[in-house]
Design brief:
The chain is mostly helical. The protein has helices at about 10-25, 30-64. It has one domain (about 10-64).
Length: about 60
């Protein structure tokens, strides 16, 4: 049986969780480089989350 594709909402939630995890990891960083990596990952996840939210709104408009 083929694996189903995640919905846009599921993808957005996943990115939201990733953003939170990366933000929470920042204070536990051992080096400045590790802190920068967590900040970059958090920023990237937040960007993807915003894009998925836009996609969700667009999909809802198309359904109406």
């Amino acid at each position: 049986m083929p694996k189903r594709e995640p919905t846009t909402e599921e993808l957005r939630r996943s990115q939201q969780e990733r953003t939170t995890e990366e933000h929470e990891a920042i204070p536990n960083s051992f080096t400045p480089e590790e802190e920068r990596q967590h900040r970059r990952r958090a920023a990237k996840s937040a960007y993807l989350e915003r894009k998925l939210a836009e996609r969700e709104r667009s999909e809802r408009r198309q359904e109406d």
